[in-house]
Specification:
About 55% of the residues lie in helices and about 15% in strands. The chain has helices spanning about 10-20, 25-35, 45-55, 80-100, and strands at about 60-65, 75-80. Strand 1 (about 60-65) and strand 2 (about 75-80) form a beta hairpin. It starts with 7 loop residues before the first helix and ends in a 7-residue tail after the last helix.
């Protein structure tokens, strides 16, 4: 497998951006992760992961329009790139192969 290493949290953030389909920015990613994992999620940790994933070429970002509720500031929305989709698929394949290789008696 010839890809950049992703830690568990980066993988979760990348998956969450895919789930949010164009509505992914720091706050929505953090809220979705908290709801789905029932873990304490640091907004700054989410932002760090988003920018790291963008540097690796797995995400693209663009600024949305300014809103009054944000004091005229714009949100940075993230989407998964083709490389990000490929990496997610590869990771799923590896995990599925490992799960399928566990003897049934090992999980009882």
């Amino acid at each position: 497998m010839n890809r950049a290493y992703l830690g568990e949290f980066e993988e979760l953030v990348l998956l969450t951006v895919a789930v949010l389909q164009g509505q992914a920015y720091g706050v929505t990613v953090a809220a979705e992760l908290k709801q789905r994992t029932d873990r304490t999620i640091s907004l700054s940790g989410v932002h760090i992961a988003l920018y790291r994933l963008e540097e690796k070429g797995f995400l693209l970002s663009e600024l949305g329009g300014a809103t009054n509720e944000r004091g005229g500031r714009r949100k940075r929305f993230f989407t998964v790139t083709a490389a990000g989709k490929q990496t997610l698929g590869e990771m799923r394949d590896v995990r599925n192969q490992l799960w399928d290789s566990i003897p049934t008696t090992s999980l009882i």
